[in-house]
Amino acid sequence: MVRYVSFITASIMFLLIVGCADIETDSKKFVPSDTDIVNRNNGDIENESRLKEFIKNTETGDKDSIRVVAYTKEGDPILTELTYNREQLEVTEDTTRDEYGSGEINTFECEKIVVEENKYSIIGCQGDKTPYYLAEGN
Fold it and tell me: Does 15 reside within a domain?
C-alpha cells in the first residue's frame, strides 16, 4: 500500500512539474533571414543599407520588396512586409508572434516612407495607421 501511495504521489508531482514548465514551442520562435532589416531594442538596425536602397527604389519607380523585423520590449518579433509595385506601397503587418499584440495579419496601402534623422516611418496609410512606425536607429 505504501508503494502504491508513493507511486501515485510521484506521478502527480511529475505531471505538475511537466504541466507547469514554460516550454517555448517552435512556432513561437522566429529567426530573421540574412536579408531582413532587423530593428532591435538597442537602437541597432541590421541591413539598414538595404532599407535605404528600398526607399530609393520607391522614389525612382523600381519594383522592390523587403521585410522589416522589429522587436517589442518583451522581445517578440513583429514582421512588416513592404512591397512596391511602381504604383503603390503595400504594407503587411504580422503581429501573430507578439504575445501582447492583436495577433493578426493586416494588409494596407500607404503613400511613402519618410526618414527624419534616424527614424523611418510610413505615411499616407489607409485607416488609422498614419504615421506607421517602421524602424529607429541610434
Answer: no
- Per-residue CA distances from 120 to 22, 125, 135 (Å): 36, 14, 5
Whole-model pTM: value is 0.76
115 falls within a domain: yes
Write out the residue range of the structural domain in which residue 70 sits: 30-136
Residue 51 Cα distances to 9, 17, 114, 116, angstroms? 58, 46, 12, 14
DSSP annotation of 77 reads: E
How many domains in the chain?
A: 1
Only one residue has cell 505538475, namely 16
pLDDT digit string, tens, across residues 24-80:
544 458 899 999 999 988 889 999 999 999 999 999 999 999 999 999 999 999 999
- Read off the pLDDT band of 126 (50, 70, 90): confident
What is the Cα–Cα distance from 38 to 47, expressed in whole angstroms?
7
